[in-house]
Write a structure and sequence with these properties.
Distance between the termini of chain A: 25 Å
Shape of chain A: globular
Number of helices of chain B: 13
Largest interface: A-B, 65 and 67 residues
Structural class of chain B: alpha/beta
Radius of gyration of chain B: 22 Å
Keywords (chain B): Oxidoreductase
Helix content of chain B: 25-40%
Number of strands of chain A: 12
Order of helices and strands of chain B: EHEHHEHEHEHHEHEHEHEHEHEEH
GO molecular function, one term (chain B): hydroxypyruvate reductase [NAD(P)H] activity
Protein name (chain B): Glyoxylate reductase/hydroxypyruvate reductase
Largest sheet of chain B: 7 strands, parallel
Oligomer: heterodimer
Strand order of the largest sheet of chain A: 8-7-6-9-10-11-12
Shape of chain B: globular
Largest sheet of chain A: 7 strands, parallel
Distance between the termini of chain B: 31 Å
Family (chain B): Belongs to the D-isomer specific 2-hydroxyacid dehydrogenase family.
Strand content of chain B: 5-15%
Strand content of chain A: 5-15%
Radius of gyration of chain A: 22 Å
Pfam families (chain B): 2-Hacid_dh, 2-Hacid_dh_C
Order of helices and strands of chain A: EHEHHEHEHEHHEHEHEHEHEHEEH
Chain lengths: 345, 328
């Protein structure tokens, strides 16, 4: 069955933009443009359906706007929602959050204020799985280092003894076999990889045999056997610092850690030490804590680390779909209809 | 072989920039008496009759008429890797010397390189790395968006064993697969990867989001991808070359990339390698170049040497050579 949320850009279920005399709903956003703001082209589209109010505008005109705002469009964790904000928005009905992760939201707090929450769970899955594979291949074959050699002004020749490690036929251990983890397994299978996985629950036999994955009830078993350990769990109190000194020491010294989940799933200081002391071979991280890392952080200097700026879902098409999903959720929430991709407590 | 002496195997050098990998020496010495070019040149009179085989590593030593004439007992030249474009096959055959390449060891590894480049280019991994690690780099997230791989169309030009392994991998990314090849593959092979044959390369170029070039370099494939072909490609398409630099018209590629005729390129091979340090390709933001990663893994390179040893031993024992290459 096709998961909901993965749609083309035509929306027969949505009403056309408001006609003459009707006011568009007021929706709070952080800002448009700049480094992390709502994309200009997305804003143009959203403005057909909503009256977008940037935080700056809101703060300048709180008296008038606070009662008008009925939804918050949270693009990559901004605007930050604290109790103070909720107290000043008496008519807030829904917060639409981009992406699948909801660890940045205080769901209890929002629930107490009667505010509904939505995310964009399925539309990000394939892009994120693709990035996991991209990081594994780039790290293993030393793609970034290779690029630097290929373009460096000092390069006179390509040395024959400069080698990477094979992905095909190696063992991949997937920690967190949800939608994203499973899609990684589907891709890895085509590289003739041996696939192990660790998950709160074991998947059923058909799912396991479709990708040739073996369940490791104990994470230790997975860590000891894997050439690549890929993290695709949610961030919860249980997965906070899931991979620490102990786990890193269980890994092979020839193994690579790939993180496409959340920075806090890994004990970052322990990771730095493990990489410096060659406890593990390398790491490839799409997520860190914080994002971005301070410019003097040791992770930025290690040769055996690839870091990307949280681009798991960063394709034009997917970001567009995320925006459209969020718009749908807000519209449904404001009309008292069932909310697509609602996040329940 | 009688006499207890191992047959002489000529290699360019051991270690160094282009030499035989140290880790492979033990395997070679088990079967052969290793002679480096330096040793050969210093002691031609003694060595020339001993050499029965040559093992080429990164196209060296260079095989020319002079060398062939000075090795009266040479029976076979084994190449590391699959490409034979650096050898004059007819010349070698005219001396009664057999030739072999190493096709099996390379296919998975090279297919992995192709996929690594496709993914890195599509998702702008190298640019992302710079943004993530550079001090004070100003950027806007909207400007760093990539293009989707899952569900996109890949056009594979050259569906030999490497091209086919790429198709197997691409299928797992739910990609739509087109291919162009001298000959059409069997129906079962096509169905196994869901690949559609494009008899005309134009048809492939017009539909593909990713054009993956995986052909051998021959007079027919020289500058196969030129101005005309790139203009047939979508402006949103990416060109990935893991075959040989000379298969692509490099000057035309520079122009195409600078003027937005195609979106991006990812090149594991160029002409020459490395490129001159002032070459435009090194400066373009929408280009990833890698230093001929091809099969550069511990595992694959070792397998290549194993394959070469097998080929050489077969030739020296008068048996059928597993991967013989005939001058066509």
């Amino acid at each position: 069955t096709k998961p909901c949320g993965r749609r083309s850009s035509s929306f027969p279920s949505l009403d056309p933009p408001a006609g003459f005399g009707q006011e568009l709903p007021y929706v709070l956003i952080d800002c448009i443009g700049g480094r992390y703001g709502v994309y200009e082209d997305h804003a143009e589209f959203l403005k057909k359906y909503f009256h977008l109010i940037a935080m700056k505008e809101y703060l300048e005109n709180k008296k008038f706007l606070s009662k008008k705002i009925r939804a918050i469009y949270m693009w990559f964790h901004k605007p930050v929602i604290k109790e103070e904000l909720l107290q000043s928005l008496p008519n807030l009905k829904i917060v639409a959050s981009s992406g699948v992760g909801i660890d940045h939201l205080d769901l209890n707090l929002l629930s107490r204020y009667g505010v509904k929450v939505s995310n964009t769970p399925f539309v990000v899955s394939t892009d994120t799985a693709d990035l996991g594979m991209a990081l594994m291949l780039a790290s293993s074959r030393r793609l970034v280092e290779g690029y630097q050699i290929a373009v460096s002004p000092d390069t006179e020749y390509f040395p024959a003894d400069w080698l990477g490690a094979e992905v095909s036929g190696a063992t991949l251990g997937i920690v967190g076999m949800g939608t994203i983890g499973y899609k990684v397994a589907e891709r890895a299978k085509a590289f003739e990889m041996k696939i192990l996985y660790h998950n709160r629950n074991q998947r059923n036999k058909e799912e396991e045999s479709a990708v040739g994955a073996s369940y490791c009830k104990k994470i230790d078993d997975l860590l000891q056997q894997s050439d690549f350990v890929l993290l695709s769990v949610n961030l919860t109190p249980q997965t906070h610092k899931l991979i620490g000194k102990r786990e890193l020491e269980l890994m092979k010294p020839t193994a690579t850690l790939i993180n496409i989940s959340r920075g806090l799933v890994v004990d970052q200081d322990a990771l730095v030490e493990a990489l410096q002391n060659k406890v593990i071979k390398a790491a490839a991280l799409d997520v860190t804590y914080p994002e971005p890392l301070p410019r003097d952080h040791p992770l930025l200097k290690l040769k055996n680390v690839i870091i990307t700026p949280h681009i798991g879902s960063a394709t034009k098409k997917t970001r567009r779909l995320m925006m459209e999903n969020m718009m749908e959720s807000i519209q449904a929430g404001l009309r008292g209809l069932p909310i697509p991709n609602e996040v329940l407590l | 072989m009688g006499g207890g002496e191992l047959p002489g195997l000529l290699v360019n050098e051991i270690g160094g920039i282009h030499g035989i990998l140290h880790g492979h020496v033990a395997l070679l010495k088990k079967h052969f008496y290793l002679i480096t070019m330096k040793e050969f040149l210093e002691n031609r009179k003694h060595m020339s009759k001993k050499v029965q085989a040559i093992y080429l590593w990164w196209h060296k030593p260079i095989i020319n008429r002079e060398l062939l004439q000075s090795l009266p007992n040479l029976k076979v030249i084994a190449n590391s890797g699959v490409g034979m474009d650096h050898l004059d096959l007819k010349l070698v055959a005219s001396f009664g010397v057999k030739m072999a390449n190493a096709p099996y060891a390379v296919s998975s590894s090279t297919a992995d390189t192709g996929m690594a480049l496709l993914l890195a280019s599509a998702r702008r991994l190298v640019e992302g790395y710079h943004v993530a690690t550079s001090p004070g780099m100003e950027y806007s997230e909207a400007d760093l968006l990539g293009v989707e791989v899952t569900g996109a169309t890949v056009g594979i030009i050259g569906m030999g064993s490497i091209g086919y392994k790429i198709a197997l991998r691409a299928k797992a990314f739910e990609m739509n697969i087109l291919y162009h090849n001298r000959t059409r593959r069997k129906e079962q092979e096509e169905q196994a990867v869901g690949a559609t044959y494009c008899e005309k390369i134009d048809s492939l170029l017009q539909q593909a989001d990713f054009v993956m070039v995986v052909v051998s370099l021959t007079p027919q494939t020289h500058k196969l991808i030129g101005k005309r072909e790139m203009e047939l490609m979508k402006p949103t398409a990416t060109l990935i070359n893991i075959s040989r630099g000379a298969v692509v018209d490099q000057e035309a590629l520079v122009t195409a990339l600078q003027t937005g005729v195609i979106r991006a390129a990812a090149l594991d091979v160029t002409y020459p390698e490395p490129l001159p340090r002032d070459h435009t390709l090194l400066k373009l933001k929408n280009v990833i170049i890698t230093p001929h990663l091809g099969i550069k893994t511990d595992k694959a390179t070792y397998m290549v040497t194993e394959e070469a040893v097998e080929n050489i031993l077969a030739a020296l024992n008068g048996l059928p050579i597993p991967s013989e290459v005939l001058p066509s």
